[in-house]
Known about the structure:
By secondary structure, the chain is an all-alpha fold. It has helices at residues 2-19, 22-38, 59-62, 85-92, 94-97, 101-122, 129-155, 158-161, 183-194, 210-218, 222-248, 261-300, 325-344. It folds into 2 domains: 21-55 and 222-344, no CATH class; 62-169 and 180-218, no CATH class. Helices cover 60% and strands 0% of the residues.
Amino acid sequence: MRFRALSLSLLALVLVGCNSDEATSLVERYANRTSNAIGVDIDLELKPASELYSPLPARRERLAEVPEIREGLLDLLDLRQCNLMQLVSERNTSLGRVAKPSQRLIYELKILPEINRCIDALEGDAENTDLRNKLLEYRAIKERGFAPLLLNAIYNSDEMEQHFSFAQPPLSPEDQGYFSPLVNSLERFAILTKLLTSADWQTPDFTDQLEQSYETLYRSDFGARWISSMAMLTQTLDQASSAIETRLAGRPICFNQKQNNQSDILWSVFVKFYVGELQPYIAQVEREGREWSRLNLNILNPLSEIEQSKMIAPFFNSQTTSALWGPYFQARERHTRAWQDLLEQCGLRPGT
């Protein structure tokens, strides 16, 4: 029985260790050290991101309407000379009709340039006037639906949707470069949405590698972990600021800015735990978050006329009024001012 009890205890310790995360440990250590240095309790109460931010709307609400057209309406025999038969036939198969967003996107990227080439080739061909007119009508429908199709294929895919989850732990301080694998995929998607501004674009060279871009998104959870990091940092900075401001409202730590033992402890905590630990993590989350936001906005900006894109953009807007960045910026500036005012009591304010 004693062995069994010991085994269960060890198992519990292992599970606790597995469930803890380095980022939360970092901010808790910072809060504890700061609390001890200023003599004011900082009992961090970190709410999950789901209690701070509005979730991504349901997919059915985010789906943009794409005009539908059945390629079977076109006479396949007439398409032999345009190299369209194989593409259209593939789209008409059962696989094509239930294709994933990524596969449908690849198809559209291939079919539209081929249609344009066919239309140009048939110009002045009296025998194929009817076919050319059908293709012109078909192209108009396809072009009208290209922007909403891009939005759906990118942001309504399972691979991208998981990056908006509130269920992941924050980024680890050891996760330097965690975002880097996503850069190439996001840059490719931005190239695709910029095609909307080009009148005569060609199928991008990387079209057949788009499935790999989706796989990269699938294998990453950066977006969700970044959201958790922003929630954790915003709350930590605000709650620690409240404690420092409480201390500022009391008797100064130093009389006439004359340093003492308590100011030595305060300075040590500031240098070791704020400058040495918390600030590098803040810089990591902010740096990678800015890049994540910038690349997503590069994708979304050409799609801004689509109403559903406005449901996604708030996750990336870095204005001070935005849902994620706004509260974080306010908390960061408040915390910086609190430390400056506290250190100034002892003539320790950086830059003075």
